Each structure stands twice: as structure tokens, then as C-alpha cells.
Amino acid sequence: MGTTAAQQHTGHRSFADPAPGPGIDTAAVAALADETLDWRFKAVPADAWGSTVRDWLATGPTLDGLGTPLLTLDAAALDHNLHTMAAWCRETGVLLAPHGKTTMAPALWQAQLAAGAHAITLANLPQLRVARAFGVQRLLLANTLLDPAGLAWLAAELDHDPEFAFTSWVDSADSVRQMDAALRAAGA
């Protein structure tokens, strides 16, 4: 897909344009292994507190030592699903933007993007901020962002990173007018 005159003028990537690489800051995702475990991690047992994720996983913890509720993923099934979906999308010419809002797991987002997902879909401003903290380059908001402060933040993200592409669902022409007014007020 070619770039539009507006993209050439602003230097911004179109949401539909593919970008090189995985579309996420892989170093930021890898740094999660160095996160220190504490009370903020609800399923992790107290005896793991103070350890990094990497160090704790090296002890070989088992599922029966974790709190509930707990979600587990089958690595083989996940890998199969990632590659099956990516192949189907390639064959049918569809751009995939899986629901990152369901997992809020940057490591999974990285795997989805590496397998061929085009973008990550999120539902609200806090989720967008998490994705941007991990350098996700193409985001789809399955919602309408009307918060003026949130739109100002979004405008700054777009200005700061010409590789960042964003699209949002809107539910009415009035929503578009409100978004436009807030973006203009933010200097976008």
C-alpha cells in the first residue's frame, strides 16, 4: 500500500501499512523477566516475593504452588494457533489485530506480532498506555476515545513516534467532532 499525501506531510505511517520488524519493543518485553515479584502479583506465592521472575522460574515452580484463579496456556497449542491464524490471514489477504485487551500480556502480543498479526486491539486508554509502554507500533481501539486528556496523550504519542499508527472505532459523527475538537485543543 502506498502512502497518502497527508502521511508524506506528517511522516506518520498509515494503520494499514505494514511496518518492518515485530511491531513491539522486544527489549521491554524481555525486561519483564527481571521484574521483582511482590504483593502486586496475585497468583505468585509469598515465598517468591523479592525474587525476579527469571530467578523464581529457575526454581521450577509447579501449578499447585500458585494461587487461583489462574490462567494457564498450553505452549504447543498456542504456537499451533498463532501459526494457523497467521497462515489463514496471509492466504485470505486479511490483516489480523488480535484482542490484546483479553490477556494484557505483552509477551503474548510479541508472539502474535512475530507470527504475523498486523496490530493489537485494545478497549480503553489505560490499555493503550500499557501497549505504548511496550512500544506496540499499530493499535486498534475497539471503542471511542473521547477523554480530552487521553486524546492529548495520544496526539503526543503520534507526534513523538512517526512509526506509530493508531485507529479507533467511533459510534457517531458527534463523537468524531468531539475527538477533533479535543485533538485540535491539544495542538494535533
UniProtKB/TrEMBL annotation:
Q: Where is this region: Disordered?
A: 1-22
- InterPro entries annotated for this entry? D-amino_acid_metab_enzyme, PLP-binding_barrel
The protein here is known as Alanine racemase
Native species of this protein? Kitasatospora cheerisanensis KCTC 2395
**Which PANTHER family does the record match to this protein?**
D-SERINE DEAMINASE, ZGC:162816-RELATED
